[in-house]
Structures are given as C-alpha cells and as structure tokens.
Amino acid sequence: MDEKHEIVAFGGGCFWCTEAVFSELRGVASVMPGYTGGLSKNPTYDQVCSGTSGHAEVIKIEFDPSQITFNDLLTVFFATHEPTTLNRQGNDVGTQYRSSIFYTTEQQEHEVEKFIADLNEGASARVVTEIASLGEFYPAEEWHREYYFKNSDQPYCQLVISPKLERLQAKYSQLLKSSQSL
Hints:
Blueprint (H helix, E strand, L loop, with lengths): L5 E7 L2 H9 L4 E9 L8 H5 L6 E8 L6 H10 L8 E2 L2 E2 L5 E5 L2 H15 L9 E4 L4 E2 L7 H5 L3 H18 L10
Parallel strand pairs: 6-7
Antiparallel strand pairs: 1-3, 1-6, 2-3, 2-8, 4-5
C-alpha cells in the first residue's frame, strides 16, 4: 500500500454492487470483494451465504485521500444502499448483507460516527450500519472479482447494478474517474 493511501471496507449488500460502484470513483486505487467481521478463518462464499460464519460481504477499498475524501466515499456509500434496513438489501437477506463500515484509522471512525449522527438527525428511519475496526479480511474467490464488468449482461447486473451505476453517474459525476467509463 502506498504511504499516501488509506484502506476502508464497506458492506452494503452484495459485493458485486459495491465493487462496481466504488471502482468508478477517482482516487480509488483498488477495490477487492471479500469477507470480514466474522469468527471463522478463511470463509468460503458458501459459508458466508449460509449466515453461519458471521462474516459480511464487503469491499476493501484502497484510496488516495488527496484525490477523493473519506467524506466523499461515505456520501457515495450511504447513497448507493439502504442503511436503515437491518441485514437486508433488496432481495438479498441475511447478516452477510448487513450495512457495515470497517475503518482502519481513528480519524475514519470519528468521521463515520459524525456522518451517521448527521444522517440520523431528524430522520424518520435510523441508520443501522455496523461500525467496527477492520480485522482479518479474506479476499473473495476469483470469480467474484470484477463480477459486473465481466457479466454486465446478466439479469441481476442489468436489474440491480446498472441502475446504481446510472444514478452514480447522474448524481456524483464529479467524483468519477471519467464520465465515459460507465
């Protein structure tokens, strides 16, 4: 990891969606889907999907804070999933799909807490996003990596991921690597 770069992991439902979204942002050097937040060592996708491993599907992001702020990453994260629904994103149900942020610095932790407090102020539904320090991270199996970009014609990608990318481009074009990448 570059000295100027930071790491954070976001869980916002299926990691195919979050990987596709955050891969488009300028200043994001890498996005790796994987598992964290559970007790078992080296979990597999099947174990995580069973809900018995305790892990969440997440993406580990390496980013350059001189190109994109942590606050911008939080803004996109909270705008591209439903943070007020416990253990569910659309049709994806289970603790593995929980809204979660796994920080790597105290500064990130404080920024997340403030961001969520601001979201909750006057809101009718409270944010249920788990906040924890990033522990052991297990990269997902190879076939999950760049899933959307390799399978964008599949129905799930067309119905779930493509609309998120279209909203990202419409609302946050200033944060994208290039407006032609979508």
